[in-house]
Design a protein that fits this description.
By secondary structure, the chain is mainly alpha-helical. It is 73% helix and 0% strand. α4 crosses α10, α7 runs antiparallel to α11 and α8 packs across α9. The longest helix has 32 residues. It is globular. The protein starts with 5 loop residues before the first helix and ends in a 5-residue tail after the last helix.
């Protein structure tokens, strides 16, 4: 009996269409990024006849993307490290705390519903008064505050899945709360930590508005802000822009491929809030 029906055909057609929608932007990046400006002007959606790397060279050297990459790596790395430490400790407290801790957990979770744009200008005034408005530290502090609620929720949900008997056994052996967390809980947090690194790293790396406001016009700009500078008022070099976007996506792809197995284990463990 043939199980292939008209419904299956419609489903396949829909999936092909959805795939095309997601693949087209990637194809456009590759097509424009590896062609000269003259070729792009003649045929914007054409196929590259050869791999022209001049756009990548111009974007990296003349566009000063190299310095922007170092700034983005520094900001993203420090921010994610702070989120892992603070989020892990906070998640352990909320997962093992009593009624008072659960109330505070609700306050932290409610932070996800507050638009971050509300705090941009007040924080900018504060950073200006402190003299760090043009310093990457300002973006790091702001990014940690924005991403911390989600990070704590992820850690709390994961730690609640860990049987409390492990900790009770450690305390019977004389371990303190810190020793219990470091020797028992911390080694078990690798899956959710991989998830946090990817999600928070992606959000911080791609953030545009905050670095533009806090670091715009300085030598500390990040990759998205530097790529935005390639767009002129009267003309734009789309080859350099798309080449810059391709290079900017490479570190995130590497990060995802390194930690994807931990993300799968984390989601497969059945996180709950």
């Amino acid at each position: 009996m043939n199980s292939y029906t008209w419904r299956t055909g419609i489903l396949e057609a829909v999936m092909i269409a959805v795939t095309a929608v997601f693949v087209f932007p990637l194809w456009l990046l590759i097509s424009v990024g590896f062609r000269s400006s003259a070729e792009v002007a003649q045929s914007p959606l054409g196929v590259p006849t050869r791999l022209d790397l001049s756009n990548f060279t111009l974007a990296w050297e003349e566009g000063n993307l190299g310095a922007a990459f170092l700034n983005s790596i520094y900001i993203t790395g420090v921010t994610v490290a702070a989120l892992v430490v603070v989020g892990g400790c906070g998640g352990y407290y909320f997962a093992r705390s009593g009624r008072a801790g659960k109330r505070w957990y609700g306050v932290v979770a409610a932070g996800m519903m507050v638009p971050f744009q509300i705090g941009v200008l007040p924080m900018y005034r504060t950073f200006t008064a402190l003299g760090i408005a043009a310093n990457p530290v300002s973006v790091i502090i702001f990014s940690v505050g924005i991403q911390l609620p989600l990070t704590i929720i992820l850690y709390t949900g994961f730690i609640r899945q860990i049987p409390i008997e492990y900790e009770e056994a450690a305390r019977i052996d004389g371990a303190s709360t810190f020793q219990t967390f470091r020797r028992v809980i911390l080694p078990l947090l690798l899956p959710v930590t991989g998830t946090v690194i990817v999600l928070d790293g992606l959000a911080v790396w791609n953030e545009f508005f905050t670095p533009l406001l806090y670091l715009g016009g300085t030598a500390n700009v990040t990759v998205p802000v530097q790529i935005y500078s390639f767009v002129g008022e009267y003309s734009s070099n789309w080859g350099q822009i798309f080449a810059g976007l391709l290079m900017a996506s490479f570190p995130i792809l590497v990060l995802f491929f390194i930690f994807q197995r931990y993300m799968i284990r984390s989601f497969g463990s059945g996180l709950k809030g």
